[in-house]
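Intended use. Records like the one below are meant for learning the mapping from a protein sequence to its folded structure. Do not use them to infer anything beyond what is encoded.
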Amino acid sequence: MDRILFVGFFIASTCSASPPNFVLLFADDLGFGDLGAYGHPSSLTPNLDRLAAGGLRFTDFYCTSPVCSPSRASLLTGRYQTRSGIYPGVFFPGSIGGLPLNETTIAEVLKPLGYATAAVGKWHLGLGPNGMYLPTNQGFDQFLGIPYSHDMGPCHNLTCFPPDVKCFGTCDVNSVFVPVMRNERIIQQPANFLNLEQAYSNFATDFITASAKMKRPFFLYYPSHHTHYPQYAGPGAAGKSLRGPFGDALLELDNAIGELMTTLEKTGVINNTLVFFTSDNGPSLMRMSHGGNAGPLRCGKGTTYEGGMREPAIAFWPGTISPGVTHELASTLDILPTIARLAEAKLPQVMLDGVDMTEILVNRTKSQRETMMFYPSSSNEKYGLFALRLGKYKAHFYTEGSGLSGTTPDQDCSVFAGFKAHDPPLIFDLEADPSEHYPLSLEGKPDLQALLERIKKVKEQFEASMVFGESQMLKGKDPILEPCCNPDCSPKPGCCRC
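Structure written out for the chain above:
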């Protein structure tokens, strides 16, 4: 008890004396079973494994969507993507919509307190007319990165090391070359992927170093392109893992995280910095060995089974978070309210779906989160929730396979596993059966019948509180909005290069 009180006092005194820094690391399409710390036998992730050994590793941590853009919206706003209109699907280079500017991001929560804020990597929350949805219009002082997914353009120079060896994968040949942007300006098109992660690492190092020198608290959001298909890696990682292109990409991400941690140490701010790592959604199993691994979990990207939405997650803060493992229920939704409490910032005056995780991180108490809602990538008001987790139980009201989870022996993961309604819902005990293989039989079991009634009530109450925002994806696409560093050139899109 004394230790718990002491740690709680440490947090309060740290926040008042010197506001904590925050580094939020977000992998792309990384599965629950892809890290060494989560049991993968051949992944080379020494830096992430070191974070896991020295920090708090989550076993029951969830994103909010099995695809990119909706998941990222929830992470930054603490709200289910349906509220902000980031559904169905994802943004593309010419998308008209984006994360609405009236939504409040983590960066905007921290800005009034004098925080320096930066985003580096994959944005994927819209570009829009005149770049209106870019990070610099969403609370970030600086941005270096690609505004959408790196496969949304021709694979012009997407090569591994040595330069004459092509990476595994194909990309969209009908769009402009993938651009790298600095704030609102294109600085490279097409992107040089062999140098990209090092450029990101250098940017992050400079940002942390400058902030520390000015004694200014900072928030760094680092959503990497790794390990999304098609994989790439520069000379520091290509050919150096045991898992081929996927392992090389993962190793390059791990190397970048190692450089970032070294910078935190050298600048003397590591003991006042919360580093949080997780991923946006599960592995793209359709890519087979190039798509990641969900470990013991069922299916992957594109589905609302566990493999699509349960993620690795690590919280690291020397002297404040003691090493260990937590089985408490938590989500990307919870990151905004947790950061707000630690920074003593005001919460947005909107309906938040996240809860404060501080007590889990610091004191290992019970989670405030009792439920987790599962929306499909094709979210709509007609069907609403596909699944709901209450405590250790998960109920599937609807199931549907996905082309992104094809190639597995499990036929329920494939795109050929069409939409199915379940009444009563399929209920799984995730502690006994995390692979969701054995639905519980309700017949003749009053306790499970009572559980079902409680699940239905929770679902009804939640959906009554859900107001779907105007869909940003259904606003469509306009080719003229595709980013081009030479906007007056012709013919497009091939002339867009600089």
